[in-house]
Amino acid sequence: MAEAGEKETRSYEESTDESEEDESEEEPKLKYERLSNGVTEILQKDAASCMTVHEKFLALGTHYGKVYLLDVQGNITQKFDVSPVKINQISLDESGEHMGVCSEDGKVQVFGLYSAEEFHETFDCPIKIVAVHPQFVRSHFKQFVTGGKKLLLYERGWMNRWKPSVLHEGEGNIRNIKWRGHLIAWANNMGVKILDMISKQRITNVPRDDISLRPDMYPCSLCWKDNLTLIIGWGNSVKICSVKERHASEMRDLPNRYVEIVFQFDTEFYVSGLAPLCDQLVILSYVKEISEKTEVECCARPRLDIVQPLPESCEEISSDALTVRGFQENECRDYHLEYSEGESLFYIISPRDVVVAKERDQDDHIDWLLEKKKYEEALMAAEISQKTIKKHKILDIGLAYINHLMEKGEYDLAARKCQKILGKNTELWEFEVYKFKEIGQLKAISRYLPRRDPVLKPLIYEMVLHEFLESDYEGFATLIKEWPGDLYNNTIIVQAVVDHLKKDPQNRTLLRTLAELYTYDQRYGRALEIYLTLRHKDVFQLIHKHNLFSSIRDKIVLLMDFDSEKAVDMLLDNEDKISIDRVVEELENRPELQHVYLHKLFKRDHHKGQRYHEKQISLYAEYDRPNLLPFLRDSTHCPLEKALEICQQRNFVEETVYLLSRMGNSRSALKMIMEELQDVDKAIEFAKEQDDGELWEDLILYSIDKPPFITGLLNNIGTHVDPILLIHRIKEGMEIPNLRDSLVKILQDYNLQILLREGCKKILVADSLSLLKKMHRTQMKGVLVDEENICESCLSPILPSDASKAFSVVVFHCRHMFHRECLPVSNTVSSVQFCNICSAKHRGPGSAVLEMKK
Fold first, then answer.
1. What percentage of the chain exceeds 90 in pLDDT?
2. C-alpha to C-alpha distance for 595 and 615, rounded to whole angstroms
3. Residue 175 and residue 147 in contact, taking contact as beta carbons nearer than 8 Å
4. What is the pLDDT of residues 331-359, one digit of tens each?
5. Distance in angstroms (rounded) separating the CA atoms of residues 206 and 445
6. CA distance 113 to 209
7. DSSP-derived secondary structure for 706-758
8. How far apart are CA 562 and CA 531, in angstroms?
9. How many CA atoms lie within 13 A of 838 on its CB side?
10. From the CB of residue 4, how many other CB atoms can be counted at a distance below 10 Å?
11. Compositionally biased, Acidic residues: which spans (predicted)?
12. Phi-psi bin for 235: left (phi > 0), alpha (psi -120 to 50), beta?
């Protein structure tokens, strides 16, 4: 039976999909399946006329007068033979323990499903409707109503007798009744009425809109959304009514309740059933259409719509055409819509079919997304709802997504998704890699292969590397640089690279990659040779990282040729590994590189390479004259005679002048400045540095017959030599450029010196006076003398124990105290006394300032 049910479900869904004219991109809100098992057997021999839904079971009435109790899968649990003719209505109380049934032959039965309680009545006309009290299970609510030409209320009274009373009559057959709480709603040929069972008053009358429709062919559909909200569907009109309490001031003779229509709208088709869905409505519609073949109006498939009510219209949320069996022969009255309030299950009943509609869950949502090939959204939905989905697995969806992307040719995206979907599953990773290999897209997945946790088999990585090596050297080099060396068999890859280099031995990319492979394999010597051949920037990093200094002792020239600055820094930083002598020896045939090394060594430490300072003189003279003079000035180890010889040979005047002056031959140095450079300013500067009167005299004698030199001397000599000495030696009649300006400058300099001296004198006098006053104020202050003070000579208390005796005390500014008689007699004429302790050698702060006598 279960297998048959599954087949029914699949066939119904397939027929529904095939019947859609257009494939909508909007996801349906409901899913459908046929109620099968026992229902299938029943409807093969009989036809459904009505059905009532309880949360525990279903009750199905047929045209042959049978009532079947079914479970929610459609299996028959109980059968009642009620009448030989059509069952018009089945009613259940809220407990599901009592059932009311009426049939076309006028029979009405109300009985307990689990008790012997039973009521039978036969009327002389067909009874279309019956409704038991929702709380019928309670003894004081033993009531039910029937609808034929009259609305009759049956109440069980004294001695368990049933007493009928007419609630309404005279407006045609009553075809629908819905009882909720204390309110009964019913529909007759004129409209819909609502009765308040507490006051026994009718509180409203909602007239029928389209009176042209036959009420027996297009019956009214009623549905209570809650205890105070009634939904009415009739023809193509839908009304939502709210029962409200009337204010006490408005009552007068009116019922204490009234009804307000809060929503009203028309539908495109005829309403066959209504049900609430949260704040929305589910509407079962009967559809007629014009046949394209015969051009005659015929019955179409019914529709189940979900709409959002608005004050004067509605918004369609979803609309599904239902392929029920025999829909071509059905009328509007043949369809019914029942629902289970707690589970949002909707049952569409037709004579030959019962279809169950239910809200789609997350599994259904994912199914729809997969069907529409929206794998990304399906994967996201599965991840969000992974605790609630039962049918789908995230991994299965992800694998389907990868396959879909590969079929579309989006190989890079498919490879990128592998990282997230495959995670740490090495078997799946390897399976997917082989799939990429089969379609020739190993390059696409190479960037996303796991490198740590998990690690795949070495063969996988080697396979990818061989793919790149055959077609893309740059890509191969990138992978070697990015991938850890332990992912693959390094020996195999090295051999493959060597084989390719035999075909193209000068390929720099392959050589660089081979060097990296040698590094991974700890064959640093070979890697270093390749890096040096390529002049690769990583050579220094390789040497430092792996301490390859022993391997570069004979490669110093190569390193210097590649990058002399980095090479020298490296060599100097590692003197303990490669000595200075070894470096100088290696560079013997490349003096320009030797100079670069020794120059930087000298900059770092003036003394480390002192044995090469003599050699450096020639190197500086040859390759770096601007730094020769600074070298001569800073070096204390270079031989001056050798340096002087080289400088004189090359006619380096400035360097020769410096060396002559350093060797004490200042007069020769000055002469060279005057004769070779003819630079009076430099000569004056030199004379100032030496601060030798004889040099100044030589400078004046040399300049006396050279007017430009005299001008220079006049402008600069004033602070070192008396200008009068120079002026007296100037020959009369000699024309001296700018003599006037020079004399004015001399006078100004002299005046400036006088002003400076006067200013300094004023400052000195003012400071001396200020300090004198401060000293005077300090010395005028009193000094405390008490019993604790002692005489610095006799070391006895300075004050006598008997205060009545006369005493004399001398206190010095240094705070040393003496008895008058303890002080030595001064041999000087001056009466000023000095502290013996503080003025042993010269006068100081210990001059006497105070004498106490008594």
1. 23
2. 9
3. yes
4. 999 999 999 887 889 999 999 999 999 98
5. 70
6. 40
7. -HHHHHHHHHH-TTTS-HHHHHHHSPTT---TTHHHHHHHHHHHHHHHHHHHH
8. 10
9. 16
10. 13
11. 14-26
12. left
